[in-house]
Amino acid sequence: MSAVNDTKFQFTIFLLTGIPGKEDVYLWISIPFCLMYVISIVGNSVILFIIKTDPSLHEPMYIFLSMLSITDLGLSISTIPTILGMFLFNSREISLDACFAQLFFIHLLQCMESSFLLLMAFDRFIAICNPLRYASILTPWRLSKMGLLCVLRGVVLVLPFPFLLKRFQYCRTNILSHSYCVHQEVMNLACSDITVNNIYGLSTLVLTIGLDSLLIFLSYVMIFKTVLNVVSHAECLRALNTCVSHLCAVLLFYLPEIGLSVIHRFGNSSSHLLQFVLGYFYLLVPPLMNPIVYSVKSKQLRARIVRVFIN
């Protein structure tokens, strides 16, 4: 009888999980997370400040970079506080509504980041394959419309997630395997049929990550085809060098994102360690590395940053 009663119990909170078996060193583990948080916030804020205050950087490539930095800032703010609360204060509890809100913003910002990476690939495609029409195609008005469409696409696709999850009862367990909430994991805790959520989540993944990564791949196929037809070896290398930072950002974002989604849906018990590593990597590393990669590879941006800190 008690087992039957337990299955009908509706949890009002979820319990976050840090690193099982390492509770005695949580304070030390929190140090790299704090550093990553500070570097992400400062790095992306500096990028935004430099681009906003320097008129010479008001170009499509840097406007798209500012959109990416805003998304990375939002992603850091949405995830790091619960992670630090877990490791610093052992604050494990999160209400259902707070969990649904967090997963909404996490998935929305990831969808937006994927869209902005696609726009940056389109920018490189136009700059290399059709340079004479670059300024006429990527006008400020079109850039603003592109950015707005990316935000609207994310909101439309991700908004159903919390509503689909809110209709469930959570009576199997209330323990999450990470220090944050994502749709794939929360829906697996429901004691109801999750077929609709599974199909919609997979469809959303295909329409965002899958479609965007495919279009980025095709754009680089066209870029490489154009570059290989360039007679001058120096010009060929110069054109490819402008794509290096974007390629790094694409790999940092898509590889762990796709890998984690596959593990969540098709993984088995032997993939717990990989799931744990990818779970933190795909949320924390891109916001940390993107400003560093672009600052190193862009001479204009690097020079402005050095000038700001020296003066």
TrEMBL record:
Matching Gene3D superfamilies: Rhodopsin 7-helix transmembrane proteins (1.20.1070.10)
Organism: Chelonia mydas
Highest taxon in the source lineage: Eukaryota
Localization, UniProt: Cell membrane; Membrane
Membrane topology field: Multi-pass membrane protein
Alphabetic keyword roster: Cell membrane, G-protein coupled receptor, Membrane, Olfaction, Receptor, Sensory transduction, Transducer, Transmembrane, Transmembrane helix
Keyword DNA-binding among record annotations: no
Domain G-protein coupled receptors family 1 profile: 43-294
Ranges annotated as spanning the membrane: 25-51, 63-88, 100-122, 143-165, 199-224, 236-255, 275-294
Signal sequence, renumbered to the chain: none
Name by which UniProt lists this protein: Olfactory receptor
UniProt-recorded Gene Ontology molecular function terms: G protein-coupled receptor activity; olfactory receptor activity
